[in-house]
Amino acid sequence: xxxxxxxxxxxxxxxxxxxxxxxxxxxxxxxxxxxxxxxxxxxxxxxxxxxxxxxxxxxxxxxxxxxxxxxxxxxxxxxxxxxxxxxxxxxxxxxxxxxxxxxxxxxxxxxxxxxxxxxxxxxxxxxxxxxxxxxxxxxxxxxxxxxxxxxxxxxxxxxxxxxxxxxxxxxxxxxxxxxxxxxxxxxxxxxxxxxxxxxxxxxxxxxxxxxxxxxxxxxxxxxxxxxxxxxxxxxxxxxxxxxxxxxxxxxxxxxxxxxxxxxxxxxxxxxxxxxxxxxxxxxxxxxxxxxxxxxxxxxxxxxxxxxxxxxxxxxxxx
Length: 318
Hints:
alpha+beta; Beta Polymerase, domain 2; Methane Monooxygenase Hydroxylase, Chain G, domain 1; 7-stranded mixed sheet; rod-shaped
């Protein structure tokens, strides 16, 4: 079947048994749960539409999703997101995984490769992974959360570096870096915050699919996601404060420059008036025939400039 990546029968002992595509319709044995891992393709969408409830099939095949947990009939629709750690990808470009949980079967659908799912499959194939459906869900939630933490910690460290740079007056902190960091924090929070709600709801679900141990693990994962959301909020607020501080500093620098220009203009304004007045082309200009008139004029302007500077100094303008 095009779109089916792997099918496993997972029991309490040993590694998960890999099934052939023709065996996915065989009934599941007691004490075993089946994991059907699909890649989203037209063929897989057609199979899901033909073999699942329409509401479930639509949830698993839709193009755009946000994290959520919905109890439907005898199963649970669970949609989660993980950071994109594929080579060359941006971590904030989060990858979704869509799950349909039944008493003895899990169907997962993904549009792109998610390393958390790959790790979980490798653990199951080597016998180190989940041995029950509840443990499978808890492990997936734990791995997704664990892979988010380094990315968000890196954002917090970048905010620390920008704050340190902003305290150093000699260093120029680019506004673009602050804006990019804030945009990344907002984008990640857009999906991580609903994931916290989805895990909380799943941990309180009364379905027999989720046992007490799984609820405890899910609550722990939800608490960790809550801390990540709080850290993202802190990064976003710190970026806003940094932006305001830089704007205030630049406004203050501009005010200082404008003040200096105003003082210079105030000193030279009367001097410009004198030179303009004595430079008109009419008769009767004082000293027009005196060889010392230019020297007297220069001394007069120096005196006027000194007097204006003295007055400004007394007024504490400079």
